[in-house]
């Protein structure tokens, strides 16, 4: 007998679960941020530079292969008050100091500079952190539900007392470090709030749209494509629109929203309801407009 085909919903759930980063890697990200914060305080004092996360880490949308986006900032200092050359120097000297300090300490976290991209619109320094393995209690690290579980990069064993422990492999965390204001990352926190308000279905849907954007090249910044942030906004906008429409229908006429329906309607909407070739989304100004004045775009996104 031919094998029974897997239901589409289950297939999509498996794809979404497989693209999540391992829990150990997420924990390594937390270790990196904590360690770098301590190094900055020790090297520059409490009034010196601080770091904070931004991007997919704050959005809770990290997938395998994601970088950890960190921003250096100084309380009360605006990035607009510094020249670009000043930003480049400050970013270079600070990251070099962090790398030297971590490697001199010979602790659980090592770092090296992978690449300096200082001539970009937003200068960044790419860093690679190696977080040494630790022994983690399996029960303490167990996810609260099967749906929240991510794959691991660990092996299980028992110690001499018969306690189940897990040997975690060393984790590599690639970091894009930039310099900015204390307010950086606030839009990402708004994204996280919007996704959380939509529940697990919204999170899975937006994650799969983001994954599609990466695989298809739709968010390839080197080819002047749509930014990942803009694609995420479009996905959230679509989810909220569909959710609102279904809630307004009469009882018995509405249908449960699942990930498969959302993906199908999202790509149909993008393919047939966009009447402009190039769309620009400006989050800070709360407006969306077409770069081509002769075209019409029936959408408005506000965050």
UniProtKB/TrEMBL annotation:
UniProt name for this protein: Poly(A) RNA polymerase mitochondrial-like central palm domain-containing protein
Organism the protein comes from: Perkinsus olseni (Perkinsus atlanticus)
Region (Disordered): 140-164
Domain Poly(A) RNA polymerase mitochondrial-like central palm positions: 8-140
GO biological process annotation, one example: RNA 3'-end processing
Gene3D superfamilies attached to this UniProt entry: 1.10.1410.10, Beta Polymerase, domain 2
Bias (Low complexity) ranges: 143-157
InterPro entries given in the database record: MTPAP-like_central, NT_sf
């Amino acid at each position: 007998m031919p094998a029974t085909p897997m239901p589409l919903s289950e297939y999509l759930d498996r794809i979404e679960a497989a693209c999540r980063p391992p829990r150990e890697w997420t924990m390594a990200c937390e270790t990196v941020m904590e360690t770098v914060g301590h190094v900055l305080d020790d090297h520059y004092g409490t009034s010196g530079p601080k770091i904070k996360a931004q991007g997919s880490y704050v959005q809770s949308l990290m997938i395998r292969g994601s970088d950890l986006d960190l921003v250096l900032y100084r309380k009360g200092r605006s990035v607009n008050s510094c020249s670009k050359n000043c930003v480049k120097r400050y970013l270079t000297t600070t990251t070099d100091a962090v790398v030297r300090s971590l490697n001199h300490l010979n602790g659980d976290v090592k770092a090296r500079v992978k690449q300096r991209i200082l001539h970009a619109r937003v200068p960044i320094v790419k860093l690679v952190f190696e977080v040494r393995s630790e022994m983690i209690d399996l029960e303490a690290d167990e996810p609260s539900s099967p749906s929240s579980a991510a794959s691991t990069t660990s092996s299980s064993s028992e110690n001499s007392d018969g306690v189940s422990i897990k040997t975690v492999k060393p984790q590599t965390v690639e970091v894009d470090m930039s310099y900015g204001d204390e307010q950086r990352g606030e839009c990402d926190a708004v994204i996280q709030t919007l996704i959380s308000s939509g529940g697990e279905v919204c999170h899975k849907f937006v994650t799969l749209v983001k994954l599609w954007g990466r695989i298809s090249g739709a968010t390839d910044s080197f080819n002047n494509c749509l930014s990942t942030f803009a694609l995420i906004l479009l996905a959230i906008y679509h989810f909220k629109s569909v959710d609102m429409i279904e809630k307004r229908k009469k009882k018995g006429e509405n249908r449960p929203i699942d990930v498969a329906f959302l993906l199908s309607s999202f790509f149909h909407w993008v393919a047939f309801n966009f009447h402009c070739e190039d769309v620009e989304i400006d989050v800070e100004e709360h407006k969306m407009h077409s770069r081509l004045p002769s075209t019409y775009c029936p959408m408005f996104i506000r965050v």
